[in-house]
Amino acid sequence: MGRRSIARHSAAALELAGEERRNRARIERDDSHRYYDRLRAELALQRGLI
After folding, report:
1. What DSSP assignment string belongs to 1-50?
2. How much is the pTM?
3. Radius of gyration of the chain (CA)
């Protein structure tokens, strides 16, 4: 019985770690998209002023 609960706990921990990693990757991707959108807008504005 003890072993089964340990296995269940480690499976839950692995699931949580995988979800955390996916969330972190999504946040980093969103941040980079925002950065490049801002950069693109700034360059478009500069092009309009030239």
Report:
1. -HHHHHHHHHHHHHHHHHHHHHHHHHHHHHHHHHHHHHHHHHHHHHHHH-
2. 0.59
3. 22
Q: How many CA atoms lie within 13 A of 14 on its CB side?
A: 6
Average pLDDT, the chain: 88
What would the mean pLDDT of 38-48 be, rounded to a whole number?
Answer: 94
What is the pLDDT at residue 21? 94
Between CA 36 and CA 25 the distance in angstroms is 17
Provide the 3-class DSSP secondary structure of residue 50.
Answer: coil
Which residue bears the tokens 């092009």?
A: 47
